[in-house]
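During the reporting period the student researcher (J.K.) took over the structure-prediction task from the postdoctoral fellow and processed the backlog of single-chain submissions. One of the processed entries is reproduced below for the supervisory committee.
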Amino acid sequence: MESDKLTRCSWCGNDPLYVRYHDKEWGRTVKDDKTLFEFLILESAQAGLAWITILKKREGYRKAFLDFNYKEVAKMTPEDEKRLRSDDGIIKNRLKIHGAIVNAKLFGEIVNEYGSFYNYVMTFMPNGEKIINDIPDLNYVPVSSTVSDAMSKDMRKRGFKFFGTTICYSFLQATGFIDDHINTCHCKNK
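J.K. obtained the following structure tokens:
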């Protein structure tokens, strides 16, 4: 198989789901609000867990959170929260479920204010451009930056839940605002 010969970031290992995620999604620039909201929900759910755990539950999250339609998620009620706490397709953490609904409302406010969530994120990017870090190996991958510090601080001030600087940095990596593929990875700077 051709893809087996490719050099990639070693964090994805050999798990086909992880490799596919690495090769097709991680670090690719996302501009549409639906996908940005999806990653906001998934990255927030990851807090304290391994990403592969969330990746394996992604379809459960898609179903539970109405195909990541932030406008519809923002309308969810305490009864919906209670129902989701018994949903085996997602992480059943009460605070994370509540946070996802709160974050949906706030996400919508940002879209209304900036025209899109992408536009909002770009206000934190130096010179309005994607960041491409020099990553010789995984030991050089940061877990936060001045950009994630500033964006997380602004989002927390707005009321976002489960979006500290480390989660924010992971979100920025996943959605391609920050390219932290190792330098020899076939996905670097795509």
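The committee noted the following: The chain has ten helices and two strands.
J.K. will present the remaining backlog at the next meeting.
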